[in-house]
Amino acid sequence: MNTPLQPPASAYFFSEEKEKTESHTLSIVVDNEPGVLARVIGMFSGRGYNIESLTVSETEHTKHLSRITIVTRGAPHVIEQLISQLDRIVPVHRVVDLTRTAEGLGEDGPIERELALVKVAGLGDNRVEALRLSDAFRAKVVDSNTGHFVFEITGKSSKIEKFIQIMAPLGLVEVCRTGVAAMSRGTDPVIED
Q1: Residue 161 pLDDT more than 90?
Q2: Is the pLDDT at 107 greater than 50, yes or no?
Q3: Least confident of 32-36, 43-47, 172-176
Q4: Domain extents for the chain?
Q5: Is there a shared CATH topology between the 22-104 domain and the 111-181 domain?
Q6: What is the pLDDT of residue 16?
Q7: What is the mean pLDDT of residues 4-30?
Q8: Is the pLDDT of residue 8 over 70?
Q9: Which of 20, 64, 115, 162 is least enclosed, having the fewest CB within 10 Å?
C-alpha cells in the first residue's frame, strides 16, 4: 500500500502564516525642499509596498514645512518598520500613524476627506438621473452644458467610490481625485514641530 510522503519534521518546514494586512493613514511632516517627496516615496517602492493615496502640500510657510498624507496597506509590523525607516530620513520631522493613534485613544479613526471632479455625459433620462443622484450625494455642479456635467464631490473615499459607481452607467467620462487629506480627532495636534 502506498502512502503519501510527509515532509520531515524540521525547522525548515514551517507553515506559512499570512499576517492580515490593514489600511493605515500616515501623516509625515517634512522640510519643504526638492527631492524630499521622492525620498519618502522611494521608501515604499523600494520595499514593494503600494501607496493607495498620496497628498502633499506646504502647511507652514514660515517654517518651510510640508505635510505628506499617505494611505497604504500592509501588515502591522511592516507599517511599524516603514514608520521607523521614514523617521530616519533627515528632512523628516515627524511620522504619525493616524490610524494607530486613533485606535490607541479609542476613537473611530482619523478624519479623512477627499475631493473628486466627476465628468458625466448624457442626454434625456440619464441626464436627469445624474442630476438627481448628485443632489443625494451633495455633489455640486461646477461645469455644465447641454451634453455633460462636471460634479465636485467631497467626503470619505468610500462615498466618492460609491458616487463613481452610480454614475458609471449614466455616462461617466472622466474622474480626477485629490487623494486623502487626514487629521487626528480631538484638541491636541498630533503633528507639531
Answers
A1: yes
A2: yes
A3: 43-47
A4: 22-104, 111-181
A5: yes
A6: 46
A7: 67
A8: no
A9: 20
Helix (H, G, I), strand (E, B) or coil at 150: strand
The cell for 163 is: 458616487
**Cα torsion at 51, 53, 57, 63 (round to 10°)?**
-50
- List % helix, strand, coil for the chain (3-state, nearest 5): 30, 35, 35
Average pLDDT of the segment spanning 26-46: 91
As a whole number of angstroms, the distance between CA 131 and CA 19 comes to 44
Query: The CATH number of 22-104 is which of 1.10.260.40, 3.30.70.260, 3.40.50.720, 3.10.450.70?
Result: 3.30.70.260
Q: How far apart are CA 191 and CA 43, in angstroms?
A: 21
Burial of 117 (0-12, 13-18, 19+ CB in 10 A): middle
Residue 188: pLDDT above 80?
Answer: no
Q: Which residues of 67-88 are buried (b: 16+ CB within 10 A; e: fewer)?
A: bbbbbbebeeebbeebbeebee
Fold observed for domain 111-181: Alpha-Beta Plaits (3.30.70)
Sign of the C-alpha dihedral computed for residues 131, 137, 52 and 165 taken in this order? negative
Task: Report the predicted TM-score, pTM, of the whole model to 2 decimal places.
Answer: 0.76
In this prediction, residue 106 carries a pLDDT of 60
Nearest alpha carbon to residue 38 among 92, 95, 113:
92
- Rounded CA-CA distance 139/134 in Å is 5
